[in-house]
Amino acid sequence: MVPILASSTLMWNASLKEMFCQIVENGLAGMEFWAQHFFYQEYDETEYVRLAGQYPMQTVIHSCSWDLNLSSVNEGIRQTSVKEVIASMELARKLGASEITVHPGHMTTTCCRSECAVIMYDSFQEIAGASVRLGIPVSLEIMEKTPKEFVTDIEVMQEVTRDLFDFFSYTLDVAHCDNEEEALYILDHLPSISKLHISNRQGSRYHTPLSDGDYDFVSLLPVLCAYGLPMVVEGYDPGRYFHVLHQNIAFLQSQGGI
């Protein structure tokens, strides 16, 4: 049985103890904690470490990404973006995370793709240096096909990482793919995939519950599990009753995933 984790954003307004209890009591292997979530809610690092000792589970950190752009032609924005990613990596070290997920940059405008690709490599060099210094492995995520995103396939990921391609590992987000065939193609051809993000999608609406969307996860889930990679259930729920998390857990239980 592959490890299945949940994104902290499925419990946006929960306390840290509530999160740990939800993960452990529902048989999940761990949590991918969004750094922006941690900083925004002003959670306590010491409390997290204490709870991690009380409720053993795997921790992965998702770097800050909202409002940031590692390939911005505005140097101030690029520098701030790198700074926020490195702050997320420092959080990962303090919380004992096994790795950090990082979103590549996107085009500032669609007319400056080549410039943005060069700028992104400069940011990756800084992030790689911080990875070595802090001892935190970095997993870059393949993005969805929206107008300004362009790191959406293996070939472009190789282009923007250059000689750092083998330094990083990679996260495949199934909902970012156009179809199930694309997800399986990437799984078969991209080396060093460290984990999968799993959720469904409805057209251009991303990260819907596994049982609610265009993908048939009844048939897709066992195929994904066969690759033996950890999977993180993604989504967002600001409510106090964790309905989306429980909907996903019920589906996974019905399919023997947990």
UniProtKB/TrEMBL annotation:
| Residue ranges of every copy of the Xylose isomerase-like TIM barrel domain listed in the record | 23-236
Report what the protein is called.
Xylose isomerase-like TIM barrel domain-containing protein
Q: Which organism is it from?
A: Megasphaera cerevisiae DSM 20462
Kindly indicate where the leader peptide sits in this chain: none
The record's annotation in Gene3D superfamilies points to: Divalent-metal-dependent TIM barrel enzymes
